[in-house]
Amino acid sequence: MNLNVALIAHDRMKDQMVNFCFAYESILEKYGLYTTGTTGKRIEEGTSLKVNKLASGPLGGDQQIGAMIVTEEIDLVIFLRDPLTPQPHETDILALIRLCDVHAVPIATNLASAEIFIRALDQGDLDWRTLRKNNK
Ligand SMILES: O=C(CO)COP(=O)(O)O
């Protein structure tokens, strides 16, 4: 299945993201993985997954993922946001979430929803995304 997953985590959520990726490595390894810069570095250090690292979030990484959403290259976003810390690039974050809604891309913004979505991905619930990709 040529679906791609974006993995993004704010600093205080990065340990959670690495643990999540470690736990679900056997599922995630079957997909193309795209990350913001520092998140990707941490995932590669903490798991055996290979990821495509874009720019760091505050330097435009969220916008790069957003651009891939526009071209239907991202099929699921796991974005572990820190709800308690203001981010300098809040506008980029909101833009990314908005684009998920525009392009019908599922986005999980906390661990509870991330676990549900990753299992859904594994059981084929997101296979309809291939039709969307093929019709773009
Ligand atoms: O800030 C981020 C998402 O908004 C994450 O960026 P990094 O993975 O580079 O820390």
From TrEMBL:
EC number: 4.2.3.3
Residue intervals of the MGS-like domain: 1-136
Catalysed reaction equations from the record: dihydroxyacetone phosphate = methylglyoxal + phosphate
Listed PROSITE patterns: METHYLGLYOXAL_SYNTH, MGS
This protein's record includes keyword Lyase: yes
InterPro entries per record: Methylgl_synth, Methylglyoxal_synth_AS, MGS-like_dom, MGS-like_dom_sf
UniProt keyword annotations, A-Z: Lyase
Pfam family, one: MGS
HAMAP family according to UniProt: Methylglyoxal_synth (MF_00549)
Family: Belongs to the methylglyoxal synthase family.
Role noted for this protein: Catalyzes the formation of methylglyoxal from dihydroxyacetone phosphate.
Name of the protein in question: Methylglyoxal synthase
Organism expressing this protein natively: Turicibacter faecis
Lineage of the species this protein comes from: Bacteria, Bacillati, Bacillota, Erysipelotrichia, Erysipelotrichales
